[in-house]
Amino acid sequence: MIRLTEVDGIPAVVARTGGPTHAGLVFRVGIADEPLARRGITHLVEHLVLGRPSAGHHRNGATGVEHTYFHTQGTADEITAFLEGVCAVLRDPPADRIAEAAEALHAESAGRGRDRLPMWRYGARDFGMASYPEWGLDRITGEDLHDWIGRFFTRENAALWVAGDGPAESLRLDLRSGVRQAPPAPSAAPPGAPAWFAGDSDMVGWDTVVRREARAAVFANVLERQMFRDLRLRGGISDQVRTEYEPRAAGSARITAYADSLPGRREAVLGGMVDVLAGMRAGRIDDEDVATVVGLTCDGLKHAESRGGRLPGQAFNLLAGRGVQGIGEVLAEVRAVTAADVAEVAADAYREGLLMTPEGTAADWAGYAAAPVSSGPVVSGRAYRGRKDRALRLIHGDEGVSVITGDATATVRYDTCAALLAWPDGGRHLVGEDAIVAKVEPTLFRGAEEVVRDLDQRFPGALRVVMPARDPSAVPAPVAGRPWWRRET
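Request: output the structure for the sequence above.
Response:
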């Protein structure tokens, strides 16, 4: 049974469990809180707090979209020492280790794939941050670190969970004082949803946003079973399918679905995914699937309850102002889900869906609207012609920059610019809050050097991201008809 208590002024959820004793300290801050030009600062705090690995002591941390937590397992004394150590570092962060930690995080992220769906749904802001690299790591100062911790890693913005005998009476969580931080508000979904965009691999991806509730979680798992049958077992066109249900603090939930494609079968997988989603939207839900998912979900919840696995989620709920849910209440909600409930969620999910098609494919044939890949209108200002490409133009004005390639336009206004990426070779990319990128490349435009000088004066500090030197082969060269308006990460 989970009970609500308080430890040194911090709300806590505690439960006696049959497994090893473990505990965690969570803060209401994550990737969605970061500005693009400081992307990675929360992860940097996590890395600095955990420091170097300690042999024989299980401890870890995680930086999520909305929450960051530190977790440990061990004896009561080890747990107390760990939690108090976390608080000590947060009160006095080691600014002299920022460069070392940033280098380690760059190495950790090298080669890691990124989920492109958030960027296409939300742009270069709030929940769209999950699509972007940790560009801000090399610009973070000791003052930045101090300010970020002082805003988010505070007593009022924390919650604790303990699975086992409960926290030691001597435990002190000596954190700075602050205020509870509200969950980030998501930006608007792309116009014309359900929408689609072309990815850069053979993978089909889909995401949607629905109301956070048990029947939505059941829908996500029923969807995975249907995908497994239609795309893998019957169709033999996909080797791996998966779905995920991610509850959010403000009462919504994100559902994602992915399917890879076997060689030469990308269009077949896309068609299969479209058919699965359309069928479930039309109410074709297998009663047996729903009953099986409900049963497995209940079994998983009871197992998690016995080992303290539900405690982190309940601590997250405390930070969102939600009450602690007893296992009986949760099980009753899951057991009440019917096939009709799942069909209702499927219809809502379809309307808000965003489909990532395999590279070189489209989904307009299935009634999906193309997500915007360019923007407008064009700003007023001086025009710069492209080198070797008469269709390529750069417009530089007092309000922003537009790059035009034929009938495609990328406009980024200065007042909605999320970041300016600056390379030593003179390349300057303005990333708009809508994720559209206006690329100012002196190698592509005659006279663009003066635009670069103006941009450097306009963006000297907070929004500027200094990029590492590019290999000469990566510096764009003039090519007739080459588009420079696409969203990129």
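The CA atoms of residues 414 and 423 lie 19 Å apart.
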